[in-house]
Amino acid sequence: MSEQLGQNADFDNLIDGHVMPQPAYQGEFTEGEIVKYYNPSRMTLLEKLYVPAIIGGLMITARVFFTNMAKWGIWFTYWIRGKGKDAPKGAVTIYYPEETRPDYSPINRGKHILTMRQQKGPSGEALPQCVACYMCATACPAFCIHIVAGESPDPNIEKYCVEFDIEMDKCIFCGYCEEACPVDAIRLTPEPRMADYQRERMIYDREYLMTWNPTYVEDDHVYPGGHPREE
Amino acid sequence: MAVDPSKIVQLGNGKNGNLVKPYDANDDSLLTKAGLQDTVWATRLDAVMGWARKFSLFQYPFVTACCGMEFMAVSASHYDTDRFGAALPRFSPRQADMLMIVGTIVHKQAPVLRTVYDQMADPKWVVAVGACAVSGGFYQNYTSVPGADKVIPVDVYIPGCPPRPETILDALVKLQEKIQHSRHDVI
Question: Which of A199, A208, A216 should one mutate to test binding to chain B, selecting the residue with the greatest count of B CBs within 10 A?
Answer without folding.
Answer: A199
